[in-house]
Amino acid sequence: MTGRLRIDEIAPGVVQVVDGGADPAILRAAVETALAEGWRRVEARIPAGDPAARRAAARAGLRLEGLLRGAAPDGGDLALMARLAGDPAPDSRDGFSAVLNTTLPLKRNIAQGLVRDPAGRVLLCETTYKRDWDLPGGVVDPGEPPSRTVEREIEEELGLTLPVGDLATVAWLPPYLGWADATLFVFDTGVHDPAIVEAMVLQPQEIRAVHWAGPDEIAARTAPYVQALLTHLGAREPRSGTTYLVDGRPRRT
What we know:
By secondary structure, the chain is α+β, with helices and mostly antiparallel strands. Helices cover 25% and strands 32% of the residues. Helix 1 links the parallel strand 2 (14-19) and strand 3.
C-alpha cells in the first residue's frame, strides 16, 4: 500500500477520509487524530467490492451506514462508513461489537400463522400489494420475537386476537421476485370455526379479503414455495411437531 490519504471537511464538524490505498494503520491513526482535533464525525466512502478496504475502515472504528449505489467514479457502489466522536474505541468490547453489528450479513425474518378450520382448510389473505394469496403474518420487527409478530400482524390486519401455539416450521426461502432470501417461522394458531371471518376487521390498506382455502385454491392462488410448504406441513390435517424446510421441502440428509 502506498499510504496516500487525505482528509477533507465536508460539513461543519464533519470530515471525509479520502483513502487512496492507505495502510490500515495510517487510516486508523488519521481517524483518531481527526476526532482528537474536535471533529464530531469522520466518514469514508469505500468501494463496496473491496473487502480489504472495508475491513481497514472497520478496524478504524467506522461503522457501515449504507450503500451508495452507482456513486463510484467507475459506476460501482460505495459503502458509506463513519465514526462519531462519542463512539466507543474499536478495540473495546462495545466498540468491536457495534462495528461488527453493522457489517455482518442481515437476514430478513418473516413470521406467519397457520389458521385452520375443522375441514382442514387454511386461512389465506388476499393482499392489496401482491397477486398470490398468503398466510397471515409479516416481517419480524427489530427486537421482536417471531411469535409476537404473528400476534401483532393478526391483530393489526385482521382485527383478531388468536392464541399462537407451537412452532410448526422453520423454513429457508430463496430469493423470490426481487426479494432477498429469508427465514420463515410458521406458528400453529389452532383450529377455528369458519365463522371466525365474520368477526374480522380487515386493514384495508393491506388486506383485500380472506379465504378459507382447500387444495385446489392453494394450488391455484399461492406461490410455489407456499404450496410446497403447506404440503409438507400437512397443513390440511392437524399435525404436531416442527419441520425444517429448505425452499419448501424437508432438508435432505
